[in-house]
Every structure is written in structure tokens, then in C-alpha cells.
Write a structure and sequence with these properties.
Helix content is 26%, strand content 25%. It has 172 residues and is of the alpha+beta class. The chain has one domain: Peptide deformylase (Peptide Deformylase, Alpha-Beta Complex). It has a five-stranded antiparallel beta sheet with strand order 1-2-3-6-7. It has a two-stranded antiparallel ribbon with strand order 4-5. Strand 6 and strand 7 form a beta hairpin. The longest helix has 16 residues. The chain binds ligand GNR and nickel (II) ion. The site of ligand GNR has 16 residues, from strand 1 and helix 2.
Length: 172
Amino acid sequence: MSILNILKHPDNRLHIVAKSVTHVGEVTQQLIKDMAETMYSASGIGLAATQVDVHERVIVIDISNTRDDLLVLINPELQLKEGSILSEEGCLSVPGVYDQVERSDRIMVKALNAEGDEFNLEATGLLAVCIQHEIDHLDGKVFVEYLSRLKQERIIKKLRKTQRGIYPRVSI
Ligand code: GNR
Ligand code: NI
């Protein structure tokens, strides 16, 4: 298992549209393990492969308080979305920035699990928000793109300042 480097906004690689997984095998399963370890170690509730510079449609989520309820979504497809919910979002690729985003409050999603089997899931509230946030990543979209241009410019300025001189540690 390994903790992967998380790309930080602004980074053009966060705008790459991820490709569908054609075969769920050992390589994808190892990616899922590494993504889960990375998400838990960063205390996030979700992580999309895009954020670790792998441009395949793979998502891991765990919104449980106990951090032991991993949800894996491969090639997720939104089948239905309804209602609206306004909630404060954050993102591991946009550290220290939190702001209100409007999303659908209830969704139905179809996806493959880590075994490659298809399943359908109905989600509401935080889980629905998180799934939409992660699917956006796979489509090359970061949540700050829903904010005003002024806010986006301020966020980029702040992140460029704090990221300056910070380079990922290479593990031995
Ligand atoms: O850890 C995360 N918290 C969060 C809070 C509100 C809405 C979405 C999220 S997802 C985020 C982890 C992340 O960046 N996933 O892409
Ligand atoms: Ni995110």
C-alpha cells in the first residue's frame, strides 16, 4: 500500500477528463487500496483518481465517523438527480478553502464495485453531495469553479502563495 501525492489547485491535470475503466482487475484494485489509504491519511471523505493523477473513472468515499465504511464507485453514472441542497464544501486539492455549493439533494447512481459488479445506489444529503463532487473531479471540474470569478482569483492567489516552495516528499 502507498500514500499517493494529491494534486493541488491550480494544476492543469485536475482538468483532464478521466477515461472509463474497461477491466476491473488487480491493477485497479491496487489503485483503490492506495486511494483509500491516501484518503484516510488526509482525513478526507472522498477521493477521485484524478486527484492522484490517474485519469480513470475511480472514486473512493467514506462518510462514516468510524472511517471503516469504504464505498468504491467505478465508472459512476448519475441516473437521476432531484431537489437541491446548499452545503459547505472543501477539497483535498484546494486545501484550506471552504465555501457553499448548491447540488442535487437526492441522486441515483449506477456504478461498478471493486469486484467489477454493477450496483445501483440512492444517496441523499452529504453522500449525494460527495458523489457529485467526486464525479465532477472525473469530469475535470474542481468545486471552486462554481464560485464567482473574484473568489476563484483570490483562491488561486492564496494557494500559489502557500504552495510556493512546498514540494512532495519522495518516499524511500
Ligand atoms: O474531504 C472532503 N470533504 C468534503 C466536504 C464537503 C463536500 C465534499 C467533500 S469531498 C472532500 C475530499 C475531496 O476533495 N474529494 O474530492
Ligand atoms: Ni475534491
